[in-house]
């Protein structure tokens, strides 16, 4: 299982109790995936979702954290990728007011890169 859905509720209180998550163990070295389904209040298209994710990946805030690809992916493709998530644009689905998105990540390396970012941030704030 995974505690990610509960942790998101602690970080973003508005989402507390509104998410559920599960982890699937598969025989791969390190690549993992988030399979997220959400009900959206506004009308949208797959293109809208993909465009928003692409723009976010290029933004100052998420550059280096969120990656975006339109290429086909499998788990080994993300091993060694330093991003916390690689948004898989080919997998975006719309069913009525629900959207399903996939984001891949290297469970060990991506996390380690965020720890390094945090250490740098703390060091810079102490100067």
UniProtKB/TrEMBL annotation:
Keyword Oxidoreductase found: yes
Domain Glyceraldehyde 3-phosphate dehydrogenase catalytic: 1-105
Cited Gene3D superfamilies: Dihydrodipicolinate Reductase, domain 2
Keyword annotations from UniProtKB, A to Z: Oxidoreductase
Highest taxon above the source species: Bacteria
Matching SUPFAM superfamilies: Glyceraldehyde-3-phosphate dehydrogenase-like, C-terminal domain
GO terms assigned for molecular function: oxidoreductase activity, acting on the aldehyde or oxo group of donors, NAD or NADP as acceptor
Protein name listed in UniProt: Glyceraldehyde 3-phosphate dehydrogenase
Lineage of origin: Bacteria, Bacillati, Actinomycetota, Actinomycetota incertae sedis, Candidatus Hakubellales
């Amino acid at each position: 299982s995974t505690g990610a859905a509960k942790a998101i509720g602690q970080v973003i209180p508005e989402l507390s109790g509104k998410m559920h998550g599960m982890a699937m163990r598969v025989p791969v070295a390190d690549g993992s995936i988030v399979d997220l389904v959400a009900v959206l209040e506004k009308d949208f298209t797959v293109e809208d979702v993909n465009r928003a994710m692409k723009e976010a990946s290029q933004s100052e805030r998420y550059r280096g954290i969120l990656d975006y690809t339109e290429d086909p992916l499998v788990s080994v493709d993300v091993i060694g990728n330093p991003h916390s998530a690689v948004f898989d644009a080919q997998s975006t689905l719309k069913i009525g007011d629900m959207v399903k998105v996939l984001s891949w990540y290297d469970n060990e390396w991506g996390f380690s890169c965020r720890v390094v970012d945090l250490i740098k941030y703390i060091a810079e704030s102490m100067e």
